[in-house]
Amino acid sequence: MVSPTFFPLGLLARLPYAMAPLATLILLESVTGSYTFAGLAGAAQSIATAVGGPVVGALADRFGHRVVGSTAAVCNVVAMALLLLATQMDRPAMFVAATLTGLTQPQVGPLVRVYWSHLAHTQGQAKLLPTALSYEAAADETTFVIGPALVGVLTVISPVAPTVATIAVLAGATLPFAFVHARPHVALADRPAASAERLPRGPLAVMFFAMALIGAVFGAIQTGVAAYATGTGQPAAAGLLYAELGIGSALAGVACAWLPRRFKMRHRYVTFSATLLGGMSLLLANGAVVSLPAAIAVASVTVAPYMISLYALTERLAPPHKAAVAMTILCAGGPLGTALGRAVAGNLADEHGAMGAFIVAPVTAAVALVLAVGVLVVDRGRGAWLPDERSLLEVSGSTDGVPRREADL
Length: 409
Description:
globular, 409 residues
């Protein structure tokens, strides 16, 4: 059972992840007057988040989610405060501070997914894990609607206000959530069988690349809606259109909880890769067949199912006591892909407008489908790369309430 405060506090706890990038961009642009510098600092922040995430995950596996999650929240508060201080200094100081905010970013989403996995399997409720992962996808998307909207509202007060609010949420929600609800640590000495297990590098690399591809889709759409808003003289349209993407994805994430168990995970991965391509292809029909808001509405419902399949596969691939580092490695692909997608789409937008940016989304989705089909062919039903069931991670011979593997990947 989980505490009644778990859900609302958990939703608030991940808001800084959605608020920090935009808050940093607005803060640095207001101080320097340069979108170029603010963009470079924001890219460094995203890359630092991707690098720091697996480090946080590895430390959480080694020392426990509670102590590492709490420490990361405190360090991120300090880093955000240093960013505010750096705005009174020079550009190198601001760049370093922005990078530190990325390195110390609390990994709430990945670690909560590990928490659900532990809870489901230790309480004999493994069949409920897909429902939990569907909720987590919806929660993530909800924060990516609320977070940027909150930043936009606070910017009206002051360019500094979003960063101050991010610090407040870190201290008031992320830190308490980590301290109260994070899973306690189980010492390695008490679980010797787990210490010898290794992460399956090949399959995990595939999941990382697959997540980077959906990140590139996000980056392309972000750039595309910005170019569309500029081209139509409707600056508010960019935020509304991107919020629409998050709302549709959140609803689709909730709906995934009702998928039948006989719909195997390998087939979900390939199927949702195909629907992702179909949804993103509609963006190219903007104006010719459907309006852009309608195209984004349809495309949005193809996002969460694809991402949930990646989370579920990674959860099944990873050894139980290395689940946190595996999940954070997976999530590290997102910001890296987003940064690359923005860069490529930005160059195309300069030459061809919004349509040039949008074309990156279906092209990237096509690569994602090719990857999924290729892995399915290579795996050929063995389950080493695309496990359908939890048979590779059975609860057997456990004396401490923690799942053990029967077979090593």
